[in-house]
Amino acid sequence: MGAHLTASQSLTSLTRLDRRWLHLFVCGPGTGEGLALALPGSGWVFVDACMIDGRSPQQLLLEQYREPAGVDPLRAMVLTHPHQDHASGFAELVDVLVPESIATTGNPPPKYHLVEAVEALLSSTSSQVTSARTPAATVLAAARAIKEWERKTGRQLAPLRDGEALSTGTSLASIACRAPTDADITSLLGPPPSPHLARNANHLSAVLEVLFGQTRVVLGGDLPRYESLKARTVSVPSGWDAVITRHPHLAGHGGLKVPHHASTYALHPQLISPTGPQARGWCVTPYRSKGLPRTEPGDGLSRLLAAEPSVHVTAPPASCERKGWVPPSVVTLQQLHHEASTVPTGDALLDRGTDIRGGGPKGPLDNVWCVAFDDAGQVVGRWRGPQAFEVTQGPIT
After folding, report:
1. What CA–CA distance (Å, rounded) separates 290 from 31?
2. Residue 254: is it exposed, middle or buried by C-beta count within 10 angstroms (0-12/13-18/19+)?
3. How many other β-carbons are positioned within 10 Å of the β-carbon of residue 165?
4. Nearest CA to 302 among 257, 347, 272?
């Protein structure tokens, strides 16, 4: 099991990035996820997007920490899969920031990529199915913003699949896609696109491997391993069993954006297995409407902490905020489980449901973790927003 990390600091104390290092910013307010990579040397890459109180944390991070734009460009934006919680604000970022490149799951023509499939399926769905209007509109807006970016810049969207590399300019870091494969993509995107695309969108979630010297960081997206908790022996064809079989080296990472909000059916034992004495940076974004990550014994956070002494969580459970609990910088899993336990209201209907209410407006950088890595595989710095915290297995000393 890895060693304990040195104490984290407040994000406000990070006034300037040391560009000898790779910085991973993980933003997750409870619904939504967006990543920002500040590459060593120069250049940035955004993966998905989210909004916090109507503002984009990724845009604010870029404005706050980038060097002059001419020498520190936004190299790429990636949309891993067509779900609202990963596409919220993506269209606005494309319009305002005009990245050098955009990539999303797909195969080269004449096969489909995600934008084409989304337009084909959601253009009609969003206007006909009331319950789907807002999610569909968010994803459709991202797709159309990408097409407008193509028109304005004269560049083409990069279809992202296993083995494809993202452009990182002159940076010493490289980024490669490790899932899905072209066959996985064709099965859902077509042409024609599968009518099950919306339901199985996570199956297409891109997995990215970031390499910087001896450092490997895995960005797991929302890719699952199993169909569901009730079907633990039914592997998703494009899921983690297949990915780890093709790329077993991904287990040897120094940083991990834990897939699908640390849901048990997304955690592959090889990906989260204990390794040597070196501490790793594992980050989790919650998804409150599904009650993720779970704190029960044997569930998501418990499984992670069986392999790593601490896990970085970007936001507390909704029930904690409702009770006015402000997370300390470090909390044990037992303490978090106690605080996350919902206080009965006496209303049978409410008590059987999942409380997804938040605790009021938040600052755009409240739910952010930043983890910095050197080129030798070491975590060299950690900074957190005021609502982000670290979870440990044992007593805090």
Report:
1. 10
2. buried
3. 13
4. 272
Whether omega before 248 lies within 30 degrees of 0, making that bond cis, reads: no
- Residue 84 vs residues 132, 186, 296: alpha-carbon distances, Å: 10, 22, 27
Q: How many other C-beta atoms lie within 10 A of the C-beta of residue 73?
A: 18
Q: Is 228 exposed, middle or buried (0-12, 13-18, 19+ CB in 10 A)?
A: exposed
Distance CA 92, CA 89 (A): 5
Helix (H) or strand (E) holding 197, with range, is: none
pTM beyond 0.85: the answer is yes
How much is the average pLDDT of 239-255? 97
Query: Buried (b) or exposed (e) across 179-188, using 16+ Cβ within 10 A?
Result: bbbbebbbbb
C-alpha pair distances (Å), 174 with each of 169, 200, 221, 291, 350: 9, 29, 18, 34, 48
Q: In what order do the strands lie in the sheet with 165-166?
A: 165-166, 174-179, 207-212, 215-219, 255-257, 281-284, 310-313, 389-392, 330-332
Domains of the chain listed by start with CATH number: 9-345+359-392 (3.60.15)
Q: Which of 85, 63, 23 is nearest to 315 (CA)?
A: 85
Structure-block tokens of residue 263 = 């849901």
Q: What would the two tokens of residue 132 be?
A: 């789907």
pLDDT at 126 over 50: no
Bridge partners for 10 per DSSP: 384
Within 8 A by CB and 6+ apart from 381, the residues are: 9, 14, 18, 21, 370, 371, 372
Report the alpha-carbon angle 265-279-276, nearest 5: 85
pLDDT at 370 over 90: yes
Distance of CA 162 to the CA centre of its chain: 18
Helices of type H across the chain: 57-65, 84-87, 90-97, 114-128, 133-153, 182-189, 240-246, 300-305, 318-322, 333-340, 348-352
